[in-house]
Fold this protein.
Amino acid sequence: MAPTPTLSEHDPTFAEDPQSNRGNRIALVVLGAVVLLLAGLYLVLHLATSDKLPSGTTIGGIDVGMSSVADARATLSDELAAPAKEPVRIVRGKKTFELTPEEAGLAVDIDASIAQTGADTSVWNPFTMVDILLGSESYPVALDVDESALKSAVASIADDTDREVAEGRIDFPDAKPEVTEPKAGRAVDQSATVTQVREAYPLKHTDLKLPVEPVEPAVSSDDLAAAVTELAEPAMDGPVTIVAGDKKADLAQDDFAPALSVQVTDGKLTPVVDPKKLAKPLAEATKSIGTPAKDATVVIRSGKPVVVPGKAGVGVVPTEVAEKIVPVLTKSGDERAIEVETKEKQPETTTKDVQKLGIVEKVSSFTTNFPYAEYRNVNQGRAAALVNGTLLKPGETFSFNDTVGERTAANGFTTGTMISNGVFREDLGGGVSQVATTLYNAGFFAGLEDVTHKPHSFYISRYPVGREATVAWPSVDLKFKNTTDHGILIQAWVNKSTPGSQGSMNVVLWGTKKWDISAGLSSRRNPRTPATRYDATDKCVPQAGVAGFDVDVYRTFKQDGKVVKRETITARYNAADNVQCRPAPKDKKGG
């Protein structure tokens, strides 16, 4: 057999190539150099970009690109320091609302502003490094916001701006429909305002437009016009008959009209009857159906206040009538009738109510005198009778005009002398100002609050200087408020005058005494001289001139002998002209 060939160590296949090895070494060196170059470049990029913000970075429009974190913090602190202290200004029309950063709970957060760029983290990703060198980003200024304070500040703007929608309605003065037209409201969009403030602060904080939305009424003017025709006018077409068993009574339009209104309920116009406003006219109209309840009250017997107990009655209940009357208001004829049951009616003011008022003693009293005149006896006596027995609960206000009413013949008054336009004239109710003056002084010395009073235009000598009051229907009134913790009962009466003796007007206030009141008076000042007036009309009443002046009245309040407070009331009297009931004399030069 031929011998198997063997590989010799001198076979060219395994022979080393010196040139090839040298090439490999060069390649390795080059590769190493490239690696080192890249590593160096990477290291340079890392060092160049670490702790740096991207080159085109802005925060709130402030350029902080390629700044270090420390430099960016310093730049932002400098640039934002002034605007961050400025208030945010929100404009609506001509009105500007200012929210200071403190009240709005706003503060700039520099660290958070920088952190959102990622600059405060180490950068090892080469693509991120390139992005830092070449990138461009805009960021808002980060804020530290007290949400509760910001919402509260915006809510205060809304409170000042919002206007509730005014729904239309129909009322019935003088038993005739009177329409109140609807008016749109407005409401601040508080959520949008909060967002707007957050986005604007601190660099765009001026002339922000307040977002306000209209609030439309639920019903339109056309709806109201239709309701007048379909509901309101038929409602006033006639009385409503109240049927209780075998008894009937008519409730006239004038009786239920003041209690009736057509108003928006659940988005629709609905007739509503107020039982409280209906109660008194209903009781009057249905007297024949039952027995009216009697309120407890206080009377003066043998010089002492005595509680007169209230009494229950039987009659028609206002709440039942108020509910049942609505469906029949649009009907006519015999269909305008409702059936009700009579029930026991308790008095509105019970015996316990009156006892709690603490009317136990005389609080104050005052008397004024007047010369004989039959009209004074009549008018003052009638006014005193209307005032007598008035009970003021704590916090209630007495009104002379509301209590006495218009001074007409039907109301029991006659013609008498009164002041009109600075002179005496004859008119219905002349002399009732003496009742007002006496009431004013009783209230003065009881320590009651003087709500409103008007001295006569000129001084009348029978009244206390500076402490008197005139009244005129309906514009000039006397009002005082019961500011004590107890009730006040007004007792008023007239001792009539005779041809040979003066009359007197008397007022006593009963309750629980709270104050010891003393009065003082300044000297008169600013004297005014009367002129002469000629009047040839049949209405003329002659009068002597009276000088005018100003004077101060002092009221001192004491408790347990100690002064608690003082008041000063100034009265200004015009001069009263010397009135002569004849034509003015002719000018001699012209005669």
Residues 9 and 15 are 8 Å apart (CA to CA). The chain has three domains: 40-160, 222-347, 358-580. Residues 44-49 have pLDDT under 50 and may be disordered. DSSP finds 15 helices and 36 strands in the chain.
